[in-house]
Design goal:
Low-confidence stretches: 35-39
Number of helices: 9
Structural class: alpha/beta
Radius of gyration: 16 Å
Shape: globular
Largest sheet: 8 strands, mixed
Number of strands: 10
């Protein structure tokens, strides 16, 4: 059993927290405001604890970044000491919004959020994954008619093995996981976010993933 800290308590972070807790992991869900880590909304899953971001990062074995990508780098750089030696799973996309609020441009063209994080956090093992799909698919890949793809980018092989195991706990088959190589490959998968707003404008908020077909 792994203690997993999730930074970001929005739809993505909460969805991941529930699924990982259901898989038997201890989950700490990090919120921006300080507060009692044992406090939770009425009816919340009891195996999920709450804490501020620093406590979440410090007490977890593996940390998931589910904060808004355009402000992630500043937030997580402030947690350099707490994240040292940890596996950091980055599922966010760093974009600037178009007029309708959907992703318009990349914040780091020619690079990626994952690369920026790895540079800023040299003692942390950053792995990029699950950023090429709507959040519902992250924890229920079988909901799609066609098997989706979860891409992996990261410099540390053991960290990627750890992440692959957690993906398995979320229902991802090994054949659906595509290891692209080092962290620089994240710029390719992060760029895939630019197709998402066009799909949403035409089809609405329906589940899909940008996947590899063989």
């Amino acid at each position: 059993m792994t203690t997993i800290g999730i930074l970001g308590a929005g739809r993505v972070g909460t969805n991941l927290a529930h699924a990982l807790a259901a898989a038997g992991h201890q989950v700490v869900l990090g919120r921006r405001r300080n507060g009692d880590e044992t406090s939770r909304p009425p009816g919340e899953v009891t195996s999920i604890r709450y804490a501020d971001h620093a406590t979440t990062a410090r007490t977890a074995d593996v940390v998931i970044n589910a904060t808004p990508g355009d402000s992630t780098l500043e937030r997580l750089t402030a947690l350099r000491a707490e994240l040292a030696g940890k596996v950091l799973i980055d599922v966010s996309n760093a974009t600037r919004d178009a007029a309708d609020g959907l992703p318009g441009d990349l914040c780091y063209p020619g690079s990626s959020l994952a690369e920026q994080l790895q540079t800023a956090l040299p003692d942390t093992h950053v792995v990029k994954t699950l950023n090429t799909m709507l959040f519902m698919v992250m924890t229920a890949p079988r909901m799609l008619a066609t098997p989706p793809t979860a891409y992996l980018s990261g410099n540390d092989e053991q960290a990627k093995k750890t992440v692959t195991g957690l993906l398995g706990d979320l229902g991802w088959e090994p054949a659906w996981i595509e290891d692209l190589g080092g962290i620089t490959t994240a710029r390719a998968t992060e760029a895939m976010i630019l197709v998402v707003p066009h799909i949403l404008r035409r089809n609405g908020f329906t589940s899909f993933a940008v996947s590899l077909a063989r």
